[in-house]
Every structure is written in structure tokens, then in C-alpha cells.
């Protein structure tokens, strides 16, 4: 599974208040999994996974949430932004090709 890390130690100084509370309550998680929230903002989501007893604690930008719609696509771009980049690249490539062909025929003599 991609973007899943086995946890050996967590530095509490780097955690948010919600993350510290969960760390104190449940201890160190067995795994931490990275997702993106399925929204226009594509916020970072970290899931703390405890094996025994099974627990799945989710944090969106450091704040504990009970439920979040997760996306395994880890890109920070939403679908609209990806389409804009794709079609912008197609348009830029087309304009560059037309410009090179025009330059070739203009300087052919």
C-alpha cells in the first residue's frame, strides 16, 4: 500500500493539539496513512491506524474529524485544475508547433 508508514516513534512537539490528545489517549499508532480529502481544496489527511484493538483516527490539516471523504489520488490538484493543465499543455504545444512550421516556411528561402 502506497503512502503508508510503520510508526516507530512520534515527536509530540510536532503535533497539533488534537493529535497530541489522541497520542496520549491511544498511544503510538501502528501505521500512518496519507490521503487527500475529496474536495476542491484537496486538504491533507493523515489516518492513524491502530491494529489492536482496530481503530482508525482521521486528521484533516491536524484537526481530528469523525468522517472525511478520502481520495487515494495524492495530487494536490483537483480534477478541474488537472484538466486545465492538460488542455493548456495541449494548446501551448499546438501553438509552438504552428509557430515552428510558420518559421520554417518563412525562412526557407
What would you say this structure looks like, in words?
By secondary structure, this protein is α+β, with helices and mostly antiparallel strands. It has two domains: 1-74, no CATH class; 77-109. Helix content is 35%, strand content 26%. The protein is built from two helices and six strands. The chain has helices spanning 17-26, 79-106, and strands at residues 4-6, 31-37, 44-50, 55-60, 63-65, 70-71. Strands 1, 2, 3, 4, 5 and 6 form a six-stranded antiparallel sheet that branches. The termini are far apart. The model has no long low-confidence stretch (mean pLDDT 86).
Describe the largest sheet: 6 strands, antiparallel
Secondary-structure element order, N to C: EHEEEEEH
Discrete helix count: 2
- Helical residues, percent: 25-40%
Structural class: alpha+beta
Fraction of residues in β-strands: 25-35%
Distance between the termini: 60 Å
Please tally the β strands and state the result. Answer: 6
Spatial shape: rod-shaped
Q: Which quaternary structure do these chains form?
A: single chain
What is the alpha-carbon Rg in Å? 23 Å
Q: Domain count, please report it.
A: 2
Please name the defining characteristics of this protein.
109 residues, 2 domains, 6 strands
Q: Can you give me a brief rundown of this structure?
A:
This protein has helices at 17-26, 79-106, and strands at 4-6, 31-37, 44-50, 55-60, 63-65, 70-71. By secondary structure, it is α+β, with helices and mostly antiparallel strands.
